[in-house]
Amino acid sequence: MATQDKPVLHGYFRSSCSWRVRIAFALKGIEYDQVPIHLIKDGGQQHTEQYKTLNPMQQVPAVEIDGITLSQSLAVIQYIDETRPGPPLLPADPKKRAQVRMISDIIASGIQPLQNLHVIQKMGTEKVQWAQHFIDRGFQALEPLLKQTAGKYCVGDEISMADICLVPQVYNAERFKVDVEQYPTIKRLNETLREIEAFRVSDPSCQPDTPEDLRA
Amino acid sequence: MHLSLVCLAKPVLHGYFRSSCSWRVRIAFALKGIEYDQVPIHLIKDGGQQHTEQYKTLNPMQQVPAVEIDGITLSQSLAVIQYIDETRPGPPLLPADPKKRAQVRMISDIIASGIQPLQNLHVIQKMGTEKVQWAQHFIDRGFQALEPLLKQTAGKYCVGDEISMADICLVPQVYNAERFKVDVEQYPTIKRLNETLREIEAFRVSDPSCQPDTPEDLRA
């Protein structure tokens, strides 16, 4: 019976990690419920005792699916990919799969954790500089890698977990006023991907918890 | 002819004896019984050999490890480990069951995204006199999350009773915790798992104390 329940995503409209999961659900055509966790209000709703039982890292997203609770967006995405039909989110070829994971991890380990809310809150007045430093450093690495791996999308011509990670990270880059023009491959890929339905419906501007003044 | 010669070449790991991410890859190679060559990249000498133009072509993130294998170059330890798992025989590094696989990846990512990047060399160098406090904060925060999760998932090892990528990530992270004087006694499940895993051959041979680039004064 549990497997017939819709998955539940606990997330925040503007959390890039939550957005990654929303994109994956959309690409697979999976309906799901959202429980918004406001990261600022009430001292941050991710810090409640209740939410801590879902995700003891006190971060979003957390996903209830098939009777278990998972955190860490790439673990969730690969679980969805391995258990649901629909377009594969990783290529069949092992070398291409490795490239998808490498690009995803550069973003999910090498960039985003260094500019997420918890870290930024510790940086005080230096927060924009700090975030720009780590985003630029990551994009300076991604640009030559993507030049090698990209076709229409990040790795070849099929949408993958790498694309799922890239778009929300570019959104973050823009929020911190990083000049993405310096990274033409990243820019081109992002523009292509933003037009795709799964990326549009999952956009921060149109989620249940998007504030009125930020709605598309 | 050329292609088959490339596949017969041993993988090459560019790493550092004490880099926890490099150690993860060494453990994976050892668990699979794969022979490989090591090219040491000293992270401090010469301003940090990871910053040379030559190394940047292997890994533009200017971090270790980077692995040359089967004619390609990969970085990001978990991408390397899963590539090895998917292309080499030997004990699987992830479980067959999708829910357990997800738990292995979740635990691995808490370490590889949620802890280690916040206390790696590049970040620590920016923290000046606050570096130990900073590292302890992020390691403690991560271990406070891992402890209850591992209580649920662990059997003999991190997830059930088979060694997985989660165990591969855990041991080097506990080593880092000890370097930063984090009190691991507060985390009994982590402590117990680490002690069990440290006795396993693949974890011992890949230990920082016995690598080609281990300094004399740190050799076991």
From TrEMBL, chain A:
Domain GST N-terminal positions: 5-88
Gene3D superfamilies: 1.20.1050.10, Glutaredoxin (3.40.30.10)
Cofactor(s), names only, from the UniProt record: glutathione
Pfam families in UniProt: GST_C, GST_N
EC number(s) on file: 2.5.1.18, 5.2.1.2
Keyword Transferase attached: yes
GO MF term set: glutathione transferase activity; maleylacetoacetate isomerase activity
Catalyzed reactions per annotation: RX + glutathione = an S-substituted glutathione + a halide anion + H(+); 4-maleylacetoacetate = 4-fumarylacetoacetate
PROSITE patterns reported in the protein's UniProt record: GST_CTER, GST_NTER
Family classification: Belongs to the GST superfamily. Zeta family.
NCBIfam families to which the protein is assigned, alphabetical: maiA
Name of the protein in question: Maleylacetoacetate isomerase
Species for this entry: Gymnodraco acuticeps (Antarctic dragonfish)
Organism taxonomic ancestry: Eukaryota, Metazoa, Chordata, Craniata, Vertebrata
Automatic annotation (TrEMBL), chain B:
Catalytic activity: 4-maleylacetoacetate = 4-fumarylacetoacetate; RX + glutathione = an S-substituted glutathione + a halide anion + H(+)
Gene Ontology CC: mitochondrion
GO-annotated molecular function: glutathione transferase activity; maleylacetoacetate isomerase activity
Highest taxon above the source species: Eukaryota
Keywords: Cytoplasm, Isomerase, Phenylalanine catabolism, Transferase, Tyrosine catabolism
Pathway annotation: Amino-acid degradation; L-phenylalanine degradation; acetoacetate and fumarate from L-phenylalanine: step 5/6
Signal sequence, start to end: none
The keyword Isomerase is annotated on this UniProt entry: yes
EC nos: 2.5.1.18, 5.2.1.2
Domain named GST N-terminal: residues: 9-92
InterPro entries: Glutathione-S-Trfase_C-like, Glutathione-S-Trfase_C_sf, Glutathione_S-Trfase, Glutathione_S-Trfase_N, GST_C, GST_Zeta, GST_Zeta_C, GST_Zeta_N
Broad class of where this protein is predominantly found: cytoplasm
TM regions (residue ranges): none
Listed cofactors: glutathione
Compartments, record wording: Cytoplasm
Pfam families in the record: GST_C, GST_N
One annotated GO biological process: glutathione metabolic process
Family: Belongs to the GST superfamily. Zeta family.
Protein name (Swiss-Prot/TrEMBL): Maleylacetoacetate isomerase
Species of provenance: Gymnodraco acuticeps (Antarctic dragonfish)
